[in-house]
Amino acid sequence: MALKALDIYKLLPKKNCKECGDPTCLTFAMKLAGGKADVDLCPYLEDEAKSILGATTRPPIRLVKIGVGERSFAVGEEFVLYRHDKTFYHPPGILFKVSDTLTPEEICAATIRVRDEIFTRIGSDLRFNGIAIANASGSPEVFARAVATVEENADLPLVLMTEKTEALNAALVQVGSYQPLIHAATTENFREMCAVAKKHNCPMVIKAHGIDNLAALAKDCQSEGVKKLVMDICPQSLGDYIATATAIRQLAITRAVPDLGYPVFLDAGCLCFQDAAIALGIVKYASVIITPPLNQASSKAALTLRQNIYTDPQKPIQMNPGLYRVGTPGKDAPVLVTVNFSLTFFTLQGYLESSRVPCFMLIIDTEGLSVLTAVAAGKFNETLVRDSVKKFDAENEVSHKILIIPGYAAPLSGRIEEATGWKVMVGPRDAAEIGEYLHEVWSKSTTVL
Ligand code: SF4
After folding, report:
1. Domain 322-446 is in which class?
2. Mean pLDDT, the chain, whole residue set
3. pLDDT by residue (tens digit) across 403-426?
């Protein structure tokens, strides 16, 4: 059972020495209770307290970091079964899988795609995470050459896919210091694989059919001293994947079977309906997903879905408040006030761009709420508009004093006029109608400016 902050505090040394990075033991206790700190950060804990706290306060699913450097990523450390219970924290890494039997040009092309391809959506840059190289040739030399080809072209997180330690050692000569994810230890080879993983400090995938076998293998690998584990559940079908991954997540987060508390690995290319497998993996508990290189449509679908699922449902994506230009607005350009909910911003910006009317967007800080919600909650109000007009110097950007507010904010128009001294025009409720509005209503109003 999870301990409360005060119960945890009773077990701490109460030195308030700050060595854990927190100002007091009580703050540290509160972080432990929320699963936001590790007991190992306190150097003064007695062994008994450490084992009690370790078992109850560690995140139920371990955090595993893959790769080093700018593109490295961490997976695991999740706390809930359903996203709406809280949030999902660490988006799954999606890696393109290449075989070492491909030509160097083909391997190079996939690597460069992952290195360079970026989709920008709602203000975020979306990218794939790395390359998985499979030792399909069975030859250590060919495998090492393929890994070298990837490494020469990009500094990306890697998955090395071979169950032969000879091939693995040959590849790790090239990339051991990059801490690639090793795939995979099985009941047959886990001792040798653990020795290699420990030598290079690499995270390692364990692979077995069935939950009991996976838990037993995880325990064996832990006894060998390898704790950075990821679990390949070897699903036979999409149904098998969803049933097994859900059971593992449930048993892990309830701490019923702590040995299952590791991130899950999914080779989507091994299942029928590859795109569906990727989508299922993103939505239901996969932390590392490998797939053959995807076409543009599938790439966008996968990255968009991952962005949506791993957005905190309690914190809408927000834009920074400010005065944004659309096109090259002049002194007579319209000034449109709206909220900093990113979806509103980008939707409106898209329609404004297609209207071809250069303008300013005055984005006010409604804490990421949409127009309707912000108006209802009082977060879209005359004071905020007045302060934003001043703060972002709208007066010096245009030669008029007219603000266009969203249709849903119409009841505030009088109060905004009074507070700002600017005339207020009420725009449409639907952003899709803004182009027509600017061409018909705004252009007529400017004739009297
Ligand atoms: S390091 Fe330990 S004793 Fe020091 S403040 Fe943190 S919890 Fe307290």
Report:
1. alpha beta
2. 93
3. 999 999 999 999 999 999 999 999
Residue nearest to atom 6 of ligand 1 (CA): 20
Interval between CA 15 and ligand 1 midpoint (Å): 6
Q: Within 10 Å of residue 321's Cβ, how many Cβ atoms?
A: 18
Q: Residue 302 has which token pair?
A: 């996968």
The dihedrals phi and psi of 419, each to the nearest 5 degrees, come to: -70, -35
Q: According to the model, what pLDDT value does residue 315 have?
A: 76
User: What amino acid is encoded at 47 in this protein?
Assistant: D
- Pairing state between β 359-364 and 423-426: unpaired
User: 17: Cβ below 6 Å to ligand 1?
Assistant: yes
CATH 1.10.15.40 fits 5-57, yes or no: yes
Q: Is the CB of 439 under 6 A from ligand 1?
A: no
Each residue's pLDDT tens digit, 220-249: 999 999 999 999 999 999 999 999 999 999
- In this predicted structure, what is the pLDDT of residue 446? 64
Residue 8: CB within 6 Å of ligand 1? no
Q: Which CATH number fits domain 64-309: 3.20.20.370, 3.20.20.20, 3.10.310.10, 3.30.70.920?
A: 3.20.20.20
